[in-house]
Backbone:
């Protein structure tokens, strides 16, 4: 898309007072949006550059606190993130290439720096600058590791050795696709060293750890956009531009560890979106919308640029500030304070002030973008200090006019760093010198209230792996007078491979809820340590805690007991049953239980049935259905489970299970289970009670937009029942009509296409399901649905462009609007789907297979997308910089002779094949395909169509 050209005529109109004229469309413009300018009589203060020595006067700060300037240009330029090393030096990423003008010119030039700022005289002001690395394209993250540092540019994650003289040594790539695709605002960042010794990131579903001489990458939940922080329990908190916080209630990894079970909407806590700037903010990108900027006061009313959150865990502020969240909002020129209240594991988040902010600036160029806890116990804030804070891909014509009217594009290359200080307490002048201290001294830092010292000492100890630290760590782990010390000592021992069951048992005597939660988390590890020989002792700890239940303890027992349960440790299942007796009516507890039962769902179902059943039967049944779909469980094994003697004394439980399977079969659109149930109902001696239970379950699973399951001809039993319905089944006969639960049609596909679809399914699960769901139904706050989507059924040129370069919202799918700032009747999703054009982990065949899979799964029916299409579109769109808008995608016309498919009003389901009783993974793909008859002959494929 050509960059906008500013004409002399437009400049004259600006000078004459905002006479509106048509402009070349900005990338951020949205079809149908009316972008009226602010009224001519609105007094918009000028936005001159305020010199650093005058900047403090522009801020309003809550009583009792003050901002102190610790660095400014020329010592620092365009700072976006910072991190303290173990010796108290402040490392800063300078993103000098960001938005040098309203067009984002020269963005990809290697102009960025990583610099070290130091306060050598201890007066609280940085006085030296060392340029550690230069020539970086948009540097975005810093972390520290043994003998070196981690950093990320626009694409890759690197480790750089720090030489003894402090200069940069050898550099190697840790992850070539760390930042992935998308624009600068939607790429991975963070490198937060977590309590569990993994590095976590925002806008990412990967975590990293150095182990056994190499860097490991492991999957985690996708989270956040810019910035990431953690609480004392290692629970992560991130946000996106439209939400101040996404606080996680569960430990990282808990919701993705069982591939047979989906948590659905992950358990988050959030807070209101309201903002209270002290100056007018017409320079907000979508200030023409009253949901963004009030058209009475012309001040930002709802967050639109949240970034860089931190949970304050220092010791310089008053105690009531410990555990509060501070979030920059650069568009509103403010710093928000949110109070977290935890009651036995339940967390609520509220704004600290009903009508003001913790810090707010009258200077439009003051752009807080990141925050950090500091060694001195204060809070540090990064101010990028610039007129433009919106990336070019989202700049609207409205914002463009604001930028030009007030000269916000220049100058660039400025930047400030402040610290927030409570005036009623002194600021510590203790300087960390951890690199030169012995390991036993570092253990002492694990007890400090200031979390910076605790986490940094833990990291240094883990990365040193010094055996001399082990005795002191084990002693601290058993010291119940120091909950902080116990928590960090345990995880430090885990990190260096020295956590033994005796140490965990000693720590288990703590009455502190936080320590107990960490003991339970760490107990899970003994399911694998030394082949699980200590799993029984680990379960004994959990059993002890089970005698003193609380919400928080029960939640962690639910998460962990199943991991330890096994043939030799059946008491793990008993623990879960005990928790379910107390909490089984609360969904998060049932989800937590199933999350830890990968491969053990059938055993747990048997135990639940013996115990009298309960709501968790539905979740366990859904997991079994998913296990069949994934090939982890054969359909024959599921039949054996249903017919096992465990139900002989409890026939009502067998009926409950069959009914639940009927419901989940409809909800999950699973053909294997459908055929199992049909076969069961068709048997000559099939009890009517079983058929009634199955049909009742199907009825419960029906929704307004249900996708019929396509099966191989109409079963004879259905015809017989409709002709003469048994009394017990009469009410369910409408379900058996064509197009209700089922569609009766036989379609066969080639083995070649089945293999493509299976490959696409596996890649979809790895790269796409986090946002769109394994069932294609979409996820709140993540991504819109793919089921029945007109975009999925669109022409292949459009789809190729979309998957390569991504799409920015809002986007309408099947009549519903999905956007980051959802209004009435709309659904909240991430503001952008990032494209795969620069993703080295996904090749053109992968992309074609993913698209073919989603076009033929969950009832979607459309032709195959071939690898040649992706290759051709990669060439055709080679000059594209950034994601497309929906309107731009709609301009792509089909290839010549391309066969198009319409998204059905009631999307059709996949086609089930014969021989369904003992599917293996390679054959499972056939179950996922639904193809419309008009597609015969497309791309040389032959479809043999037979009507039953």
Residues:
């Amino acid at each position: 898309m050509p960059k906008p050209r500013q004409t002399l005529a437009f400049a004259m109109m600006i000078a004459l007072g905002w006479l509106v004229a048509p402009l070349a469309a900005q990338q951020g413009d949205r079809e149908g949006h009316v972008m009226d300018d602010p009224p001519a009589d609105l007094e918009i203060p000028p936005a001159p550059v305020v010199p650093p020595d005058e900047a403090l006067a522009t801020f309003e700060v809550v009583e009792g606190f003050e901002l102190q300037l610790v660095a400014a240009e020329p010592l620092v330029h365009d700072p976006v993130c910072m991190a303290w090393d173990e010796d108290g030096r402040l490392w800063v990423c300078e993103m000098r290439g960001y938005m040098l003008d309203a067009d984002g010119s020269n963005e990809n030039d290697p102009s960025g720096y990583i610099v070290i700022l130091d306060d050598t005289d201890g007066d609280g002001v940085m006085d030296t600058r060392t340029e550690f690395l230069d020539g970086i394209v948009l540097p975005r993250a810093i972390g520290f590791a043994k003998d070196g540092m981690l950093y990320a540019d626009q694409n890759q994650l690197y480790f750089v050795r720090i030489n003894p003289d402090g200069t940069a040594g050898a550099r190697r790539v840790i992850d070539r696709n760390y930042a992935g695709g998308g624009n600068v605002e939607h790429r991975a960042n963070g490198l937060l060293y977590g309590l569990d010794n993994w590095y976590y990131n925002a806008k990412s579903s990967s975590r990293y750890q150095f182990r056994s001489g190499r860097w490991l990458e492991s999957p985690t939940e996708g989270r956040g956009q810019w910035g990431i922080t953690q609480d004392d329990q290692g629970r992560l908190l991130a946000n996106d531009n439209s939400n101040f916080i996404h606080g996680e209630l569960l430990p990282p990894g808990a919701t993705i560890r069982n591939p047979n079970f989906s948590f659905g909407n992950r358990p988050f806590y959030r807070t209101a979106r309201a903002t209270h700037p002290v100056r007018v903010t017409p320079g907000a990108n979508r200030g023409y919308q009253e949901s963004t900027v009030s058209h009475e006061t012309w001040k930002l009313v709802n967050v639109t640029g949240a970034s860089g959150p931190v949970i304050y865990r220092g010791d310089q502020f008053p105690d009531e500030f410990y555990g509060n969240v501070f979030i920059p909002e650069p568009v509103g020129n403010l710093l928000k304070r949110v109070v977290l209240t935890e009651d036995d594991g339940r967390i609520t988040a509220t704004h600290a002030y009903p009508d003001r902010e913790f810090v707010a600036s009258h200077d439009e160029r003051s752009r807080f973008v990141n925050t950090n806890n500091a060694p001195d116990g204060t809070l540090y804030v990064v101010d990028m200090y610039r007129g433009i804070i919106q990336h070019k891909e989202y700049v609207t014509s409205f914002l463009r006019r604001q930028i030009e009217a007030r000269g916000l594009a220049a100058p660039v290359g400025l930047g400030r760093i402040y610290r927030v200080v409570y005036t009623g307490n002194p600021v510590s002048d203790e300087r960390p010198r951890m690199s030169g201290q012995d390991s036993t001294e570092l253990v002492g830092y694990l007890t400090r209230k200031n979390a910076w010292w605790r986490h940094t000492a833990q990291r240094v100890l883990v990365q040193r792996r010094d055996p001399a630290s082990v005795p002191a760590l084990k002693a601290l782990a058993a010291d119940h007078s120091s909950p902080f010390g116990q928590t960090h000592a345990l995880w430090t021992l885990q990190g260096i491979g020295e956590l033994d069951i005796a140490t965990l048992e000693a720590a288990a005597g703590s009455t502190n809820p936080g320590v107990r939660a960490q003991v339970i988390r760490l107990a899970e590890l003994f399911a694998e340590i030394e082949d699980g020989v200590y799993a029984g002792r680990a379960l004994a700890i959990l059993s002890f805690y089970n005698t003193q239940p609380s919400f928080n303890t029960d939640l962690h027992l639910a998460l962990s007991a199943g991991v330890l349960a096994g043939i030799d440790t059946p008491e793990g299942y008993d623990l879960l049953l005990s928790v379910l007796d107390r909490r089984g009516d609360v969904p998060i507890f049932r989800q937590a239980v199933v999350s830890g039962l990968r491969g053990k769902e059938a055993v747990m179902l048997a135990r639940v049935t013996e115990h009298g059943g309960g709501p968790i039967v539905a979740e366990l049944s859904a997991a079994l259905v998913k296990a069949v779909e994934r090939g982890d469980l054969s359909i024959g094994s599921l039949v054996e489970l249903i017919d096992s003697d465990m139900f002989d004394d409890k026939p009502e439980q067998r009926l409950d299970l069959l009914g639940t399977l009927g419901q989940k079969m409809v909800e999950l659109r699973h053909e294997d289970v459908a055929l199992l149930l049909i076969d069961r109902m068709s048997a000559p001696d099939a009890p009517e009670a079983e058929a009634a239970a199955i049909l009742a379950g199907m009825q419960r699973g029906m929704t307004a937009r249900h996708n019929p399951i396509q099966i191989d001809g109409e079963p004879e039993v259905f015809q017989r029942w409709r002709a003469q319905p048994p009394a017990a089944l009469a009410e369910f006969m409408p379900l058996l009509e064509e197009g209700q639960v089922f569609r009766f049609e036989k379609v066969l596909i080639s083995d070649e296409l089945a293999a493509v679809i299976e490959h696409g399914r596996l890649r979809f699960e790895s790269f796409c399901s986090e946002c769109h769901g394994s069932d294609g139904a979409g996820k709140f706050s993540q991504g819109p649905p793919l089921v029945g989507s007109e975009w999925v059924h669109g022409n292949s040129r459009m789809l190729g462009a979309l998957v390569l370069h991504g799409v920015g919202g809002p986007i309408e799918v099947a009549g519903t609007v999905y956007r980051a700032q959802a209004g009435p009747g709309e659904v909240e999703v991430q503001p952008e789907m990032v494209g795969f054009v620069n993703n080295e982990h996904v090749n053109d065949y992968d992309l074609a297979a993913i698209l073919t899979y989603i076009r033929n799964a969950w009832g979607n029916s459309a032709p195959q997308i071939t690898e040649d299409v992706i290759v051709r579109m990669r060439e055709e769109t080679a000059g594209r910089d950034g994601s497309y808008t929906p309107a731009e995608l709609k301009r792509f016309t089909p290839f010549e002779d391309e066969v198009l498919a319409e998204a059905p009003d009631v999307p059709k389901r996949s086609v089930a094949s014969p021989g369904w009783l003992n599917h293996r993974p390679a054959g499972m793909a056939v179950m996922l395909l639904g193809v419309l008859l008009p597609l015969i002959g497309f791309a040389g494929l032959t479809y043999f169509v037979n009507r039953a």
Confidence is low (pLDDT under 50) at residues 1-24, 906-948.
